[in-house]
Amino acid sequence: MTLIHNQADPVSPLSSDPDSAAGTAVLERPQAEEQTERSDNGDADRYAHYVSKDRINESRLTGRPVVALCGKIWVPKHDPSQYPVCPDCRRIYEEMTKAR
Length: 100
Known about the structure:
Blueprint: H1 53-62, E1 66-67, E2 73-74, H2 87-98
Antiparallel strand pairs: 1-2
């Protein structure tokens, strides 16, 4: 990569004097890939988690994962009524509803 200095225009971002310009710079953001699976050694799979109904419906249509209140990320496929409620999700939900 070659750095070009523009001595003729002191306000140019290519100027050799960085203190003389009040321009803007562009920072490149690293490309982030969406994680669809999270390894939790299967412990969180024994629970039903709290997720908004809108997010569940969206996940059913798109196949994209949801994020529970406790932070578990997964694509819902099972009937949650067959599992006990996640204690972390319940605690967080109760704290949220108490604050109202």
